[in-house]
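Researcher: I'd like a candidate sequence for this fold, 562 residues long. If you have to choose between options at a position, lean toward the conservative one.
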């Protein structure tokens, strides 16, 4: 028998496999239900009109973000929104999207990955061919990141103790008149909350404190038992909570501390003996200076969570304080572009002490010309913003500038979700003229159904191509490219994720009710867990105390008691 004849069918099948694949691919590319929509759009034959350069500043919130992580995550969502427009939409089509990442001038030897540029030039450039304005044109989005997570204190047991003592005492801290007292009242003013229900605010702070006591006890005990008794590598949730929310505490501190209960102040070298928020604001002011001097046709600030506090401080910082936040090279660039220089003859300038300290290379009468710096700033997007809560608790940390800087040109869009416990309607920032502080427009948005996930999913794309989307990422892209906030006009109704609603709408009331029910359900579960764990912990503590006492008696020179 010719045994090798059995391999002939196998060899024939292998030889025919490429042909089968080619034919299958051709059939897949053929016409059929749902296939035509997946074809790439064919751009117009003509060349796009000369491109616009649009600057974008991204500001992250509290957390442990590494360098460029926030930029990477937010730009992924915005790029998905752009690519979702490639299949056509009622408002236009995006024909082509390309991304360029600017490498750093230097890199570590044997580095695991390439370094990104973090200097005055943009880190990412997105080139978009589109007709969103009605004509075929090319637009460049040039992206900067304000990264400040490294200013947070290093984790330690002392940091955790200080954090919990601070957080649990917030509801009982008496009102302090100095919380709204500002050193330069002729240049800044505190935000004003009309009809603030003081008792209701205190009650909510107390309930938040009770919730975190239950959370700390339940989760902390479970983590300890899982680690000690079962040798499981359970996540240290308490450490995560401390490192995240301590960013709020950091913004209130007068000093930055290191590890240990008795530790020295560890401010950054450029902010010694100054509050750590000075270091954070410095990052924001420098990014604004870079955007203002990079010859953009216009630029926008997109800020999330506590990053909205940082961004708002940057927009409101007074003209005389600007040199203290910049290095000499940036200041000279501002002066060369006519955006900084001597103050007007006879202008009253603040005397020392100044915060931040004024650098020696800046002349005594030099100021930033804020109206020129912000001349091309067209938008300020805040999402998941705690600005209203800061205005109620720490108004001196979010002062409103009284200097006329022509900021009425800036469209301030605030997006909130009642299920997100951090966000809220902003109503405390209209006490000054719009030329000093832009008027904010609030838009309700269904970001997610779960408390904390709602805070993290504002820019998540809510429709899959080729279906048209109307989510926040899509509206933001349309706003920046078309230079009109009309895309944020909120339609009434709708309850799905990614839908919009007004401040007085039924959907906002429903989502507020969902948030309260979720909080109560979570508190009930934590109470039940605590009730189950309490006898176990009590028995273990009594047994441990008995064992320690017995060992101490045996070790004593008098011996155990009869």
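Model: Candidate sequence:
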């Amino acid at each position: 028998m010719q045994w090798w004849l059995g391999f002939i069918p196998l060899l024939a099948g292998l030889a025919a496999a490429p042909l089968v694949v080619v034919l299958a691919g051709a059939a897949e590319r053929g016409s059929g239900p749902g296939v035509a929509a997946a074809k790439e759009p064919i751009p117009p034959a003509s060349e796009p009109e000369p491109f616009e350069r649009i600057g974008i500043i991204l500001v992250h919130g509290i957390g442990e973000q590494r360098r460029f992580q926030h930029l990477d995550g937010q730009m992924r969502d915005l790029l998905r929104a752009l690519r979702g427009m490639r299949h056509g939409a009622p408002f236009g089509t995006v024909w082509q999207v390309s991304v360029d990442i600017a490498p750093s001038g230097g890199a570590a030897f044997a580095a695991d990955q390439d370094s990104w540029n973090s200097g005055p030039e943009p880190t990412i450039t997105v080139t978009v061919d589109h007709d969103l304005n009605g004509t075929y044109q090319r637009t460049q989005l040039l992206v900067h990141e304000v990264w400040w997570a490294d200013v947070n204190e290093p984790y330690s047991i002392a940091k955790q103790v200080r954090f919990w003592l601070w957080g649990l005492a917030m509801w009982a801290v008496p009102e302090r008149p100095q919380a709204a007292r500002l050193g330069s009242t002729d240049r800044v003013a505190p935000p004003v909350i009309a009809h603030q229900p003081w008792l209701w605010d205190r009650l909510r702070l107390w309930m938040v404190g009770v919730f975190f006591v239950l959370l700390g006890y339940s989760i902390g005990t479970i983590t300890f038992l899982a680690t000690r008794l079962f040798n499981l590598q359970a996540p240290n949730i308490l450490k995560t909570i401390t490192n995240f929310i301590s960013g709020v505490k950091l913004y209130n501190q007068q000093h930055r501390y290191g590890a240990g209960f008795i530790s020295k102040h560890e401010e950054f070298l450029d902010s010694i003996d100054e509050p750590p928020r000075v270091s954070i604001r410095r990052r924001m002011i420098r990014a604004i200076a870079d955007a203002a001097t990079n010859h953009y046709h216009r630029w926008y600030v997109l800020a999330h969570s506590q990053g909205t506090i940082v961004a708002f401080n940057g927009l409101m910082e007074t003209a005389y304080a600007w040199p203290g936040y910049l290095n000499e090279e940036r200041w000279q660039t501002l002066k060369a572009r006519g955006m900084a220089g001597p103050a007007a003859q006879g202008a009253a300038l603040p005397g020392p002490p100044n915060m931040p300290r004024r650098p020696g290379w800046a002349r005594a009468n030099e100021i930033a010309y804020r109206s020129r710096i912000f001349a091309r700033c067209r938008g300020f997007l805040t999402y998941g913003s705690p600005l209203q809560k800061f205005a109620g608790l720490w108004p001196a940390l979010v002062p409103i500038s009284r200097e006329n800087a022509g900021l009425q040109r800036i469209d301030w869009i605030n997006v909130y979700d009642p299920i997100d416990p951090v966000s809220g309607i902003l109503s405390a920032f209209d006490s000054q003229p719009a030329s000093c502080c832009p008027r904010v427009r609030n838009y309700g948005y269904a970001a997610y159904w779960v408390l904390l996930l709602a805070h993290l999913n504002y820019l998540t794309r809510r429709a899959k191509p080729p279906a048209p989307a109307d989510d926040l990422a899509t509206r933001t892209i349309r706003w920046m490219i078309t230079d009109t906030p009309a895309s944020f006009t909120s339609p009434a109704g709708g309850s799905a994720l990614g839908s919009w609603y007004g401040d007085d709408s039924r959907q906002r009331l429903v989502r507020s009710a969902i948030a309260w029910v979720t909080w109560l359900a979570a508190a009930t579960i934590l109470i039940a867990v605590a009730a189950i764990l309490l006898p176990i912990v009590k028995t273990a503590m009594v047994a441990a105390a008995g064992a320690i006492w017995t060992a101490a008696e045996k070790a004593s020179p008098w011996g155990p008691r009869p």
